[in-house]
Specification:
Number of helices of chain B: 3
Largest interface: A-B, 54 and 59 residues
Distance between the termini of chain B: 77 Å
Distance between the termini of chain A: 34 Å
Radius of gyration of chain A: 20 Å
Oligomer: heterodimer
Strand content of chain A: 5-15%
Number of strands of chain B: 0
Radius of gyration of chain B: 21 Å
Number of helices of chain A: 6
Largest sheet of chain A: 3 strands, antiparallel
Structural class of chain A: alpha+beta
Helix content of chain A: 40-55%
Number of strands of chain A: 5
Order of helices and strands of chain B: HHH
Largest sheet of chain B: none
Strand content of chain B: under 5%
Shape of chain B: elongated
Order of helices and strands of chain A: EEHHHEHEEHH
Structural class of chain B: mainly alpha
Strand order of the largest sheet of chain A: 3-5-4
Helix content of chain B: 55-70%
């Protein structure tokens, strides 16, 4: 949960901000039913407390424009991932799995976590381990263009955080 | 017409859920089962939620469907990563036809040596030398 500052960067919000935001979500989810607030207020209060307790340390935050561009890409990749894997399940003879380590150029913290999450929804890849500067992935089909796909996703995740793209696009 | 579209979405969503379940039965090792299950189930649930949102077309239902989809997309890949990682570190065997294993030399018996980065750390620092040297 965050709010936007003048640079379009999402920053963590205060307890009060979180309380208001979770309250708005509760209002939306319950369709504005008044008697739901008997449970709603304690729940929203607990959610805001938990939000303060477990929010990650201050680090890189995604840019709003990056997020808006990333969501359709993410949905498209998830769609392809699902269709691809359904095909592989029905035709297991096409499988030639490989467990491989690839260099990761994104900085530690949120960018790497988002990268790992996205890898697991890509066609045929599953993130297994995050090491310093490297990532271990399981690939269902060794002959495919998974390296190019990986670089493309890394590029996209970099753009999400406004990280230099030229540096990410080669190597 | 809309009913037909919703029916197609529901059928497709159920099909992908089914392939996720089939993947668990048919895939030869844990990584491949996780791989199949993660993607197929995420897509299957996503399609079912889109169908629900289109069918009801109310702010309350659509927002709940979107929130459910968001939670699924956030939690399924992370839990599958953690299961895959736990399997790797505890030495769950790979399918015999899996080609390469570049981590093997990095993790000899006795656990990780290279200091894997755990989620939430930012940024990671190299291990500090012992005090009093």
């Amino acid at each position: 949960m965050g709010c936007m500052d003048m640079n379009g960067t999402v920053r963590p919000v205060s307890f009060f901000g979180a309380f208001v935001a979770y309250g708005a979500l509760w209002w939306l989810f319950t369709g504005g039913q008044e008697d739901s607030w008997i449970i709603g207020i304690p729940t929203v209060f607990a959610a805001a407390l938990l939000h303060q307790a477990i929010r990650p340390p201050q680090g890189r935050s995604p840019h709003l424009i990056g997020v808006l561009r990333f969501i359709p890409f993410f949905i498209w990749m998830s769609l392809r991932g699902g269709i691809d894997v359904a095909w592989r399940v029905l035709r297991p003879s096409t499988l030639s799995p490989v467990l491989i380590r690839l260099p990761l150029r994104l900085p530690p913290g949120t960018p790497q976590i988002i990268m790992m999450t996205t890898i697991s929804l890509l066609p045929g890849t599953l993130s297994v381990e995050l090491l310093q500067g490297e990532v271990e992935i399981h690939v269902l089909v060794s002959g495919g263009a998974f390296r190019e796909e990986f670089a493309r996703v890394e590029h996209r995740v970099g753009a999400l955080f406004g990280l230099p793209l030229k540096e990410l696009s080669h190597g | 017409m809309m009913e037909v579209f919703i029916s197609i979405l529901l059928a497709l969503g159920s099909f992908f859920m089914l392939t996720g379940a089939l993947g668990i039965l048919r895939m030869p090792d844990l990584y491949m089962r996780m791989s199949a299950n993660t993607k197929a189930v995420t897509l299957g649930v996503g399609l079912l939620l889109v169908a629900v949102a289109i069918h009801f077309r109310e702010v309350g239902v659509v927002s709940r469907a979107m929130a459910t989809g968001g939670f699924i997309v956030l939690t399924i890949p992370i839990s599958s990563h953690l299961i895959g990682r736990a399997a790797y570190l505890t030495g769950v065997p790979l399918w015999s036809e899996t080609i390469r294993d570049e981590l093997r030399e990095l993790y000899p018996e006795g656990g990780p040596q290279a200091g894997p980065v755990s989620f939430g750390e930012e940024p990671s620092h190299p291990p500090e030398p012992p005090e009093g040297r």
